[in-house]
């Protein structure tokens, strides 16, 4: 008589085929019958599961190993993905380097600190109000310099249809003398030219001789005019 058990033909190997008892065939039956006390019956579902594993031991072990392998592969894949993500991001940062962008409200605190560090905040000006107003008026001409996504410079550009103006040009002291100030001025001029502006003006305190030299170095000239102003508020 041929008894197929797990794909093996036992009669061919000379073993006597034996029909599995009801108890062997179904672990659940054995365990259910063996519940003698309340505790036993409470634990029965756990034992039932164990009983099933015993009966299908080999198959379950195979599944278990297969699943462990799957979990391991997923972990390795996720880890590798994270590594490549990190590489990509660091590549992006390297590639990004220095960039000039339009001001965004989230830069406000960094911008105020930058102006403070550069000595541009004077008692008669409220920097937060200056920022808010510029953001509402010609925000495209309100520029920030980012170095690896870190705000290191600024320039507030204006155009009223006749002359272009530069205000709040600043580079964090630690990053000065590295060409960022020049880049900001060049970008400001580029934007003004796009608008058809023919001349750019700026005001520097006479005492700020170092910055006057900087502008002269970039091609600005003393217009030999007196700068006048009147507070409206
Ligand atoms: C003015 C300021 C923005 C310049 O920024 P910076 O990043 O140091 O300037 P850069 O490194 O781009 O310099 C550009 C060029 O100017 C030259 N330069 C810089 N400072 C100079 C100075 N004080 N005198 C003469 N030349 C100067 C550089 O050598 C460089 O020359 P190159 O391009 O031919 O090599 C910066 O000094 C600053 O923030 N100052 C304080 C804020 C301030 O007073 N702003 C002006 C308000 S009106």
Can you walk through the features of this model?
With 233 residues, the protein is α+β, with helices and mostly antiparallel strands. The protein folds into two domains: 21-89, no CATH class; 98-218, Gcn5-related N-acetyltransferase (GNAT) (Aminopeptidase), CATH 3.40.630. Helix content is 49%, strand content 15%. It has eight helices and seven strands; from the N terminus they run ββααααβααβββαβα. The protein has helices spanning 22-25, 27-34, 38-55, 57-96, 108-117, 127-136, 180-194, 209-218; strands at residues 4-5, 8-9, 98-102, 142-147, 150-159, 164-171, 200-202. A five-stranded mixed β-sheet has the order 3-4-5-6-7. It has a two-stranded antiparallel sheet with strand order 1-2. Helix 2 runs antiparallel to helix 3 (38-55). It is elongated. It starts with a strand and ends in a 15-residue tail after the last helix. The structure holds coenzyme A. Residues 118, 120, 169-171, 176-182, 202, 204, 208, 210-211, 213-214, 217 line the site of coenzyme A. Coenzyme A binds at residues 118, 120, 169-171, 176-182, 202, 204, 208, 210-211, 213-214, 217.
Descriptors:
233 residues; alpha+beta; Aminopeptidase; 2 domains; 5-stranded mixed β-sheet; two-stranded antiparallel ribbon; 7 strands; 15% strand; disordered N terminus; binds coenzyme A
Class from helix and strand fractions: alpha+beta
Shape: elongated
- Helix/strand order: EEHHHHEHHEEEHEH
Q: Point out poorly predicted stretches.
A: 1-18, 23-53, 80-95
Rg from C-alpha positions?
Answer: 39 Å
CATH topology of the largest domain: Aminopeptidase
CATH architecture of the largest domain: 3-Layer(aba) Sandwich
Total E-strand runs: 7
Strand content: 15-25%
What is the overall number of helices?
8
Q: Count the domains.
A: 2
> What is the CATH C level class of the largest domain, in words?
Alpha Beta
Helix content: 40-55%
In round numbers, the mean pLDDT is 77
Name the CATH superfamily classification of the largest domain. Answer: Gcn5-related N-acetyltransferase (GNAT)
Strand order of the largest sheet: 3-4-5-6-7
Enumerate the distinct ligands. Answer: coenzyme A
Q: What about the largest sheet?
A: 5 strands, mixed
Through-space gap between termini: 109 Å
